[in-house]
Write the structure tokens for this entry.
Amino acid sequence: MINPFRLGHRGDFGIGSRIAREEAAGAKRAARRAQSEASEVDDRLERLAMTCEALWTILRDKLGVTEEELLNRITEIDLSNGALDGKAKKVSVSCPKCGRTIARRFPNCMYCGQPVMHDAFS
Ligand SMILES: [Zn+2]
């Protein structure tokens, strides 16, 4: 005799439901992991901000650097990538040998193979 609880629509629904529950559990774990990583990034950002503030106050108090000089330098660094966009990251650099534009993520020029020195903040 056919068991109506094992076959047919109810059975398919059960398998689909189990798969959906497993997927939901996986998504929950991934969300928790992402939340934890975001929290770690927040903590590191907070420590970095405190370090920047400490360094800034040392420069101000010991060397007499003014806030205007600091803001001008921030603007200068911001503009160094070609746009006043609140970002300092340079996307590309010119090869010192062939002059072609290459992505900063490569240690060597992809056209001529010349090793490319990147600055400390790239
Ligand atoms: Zn090159």
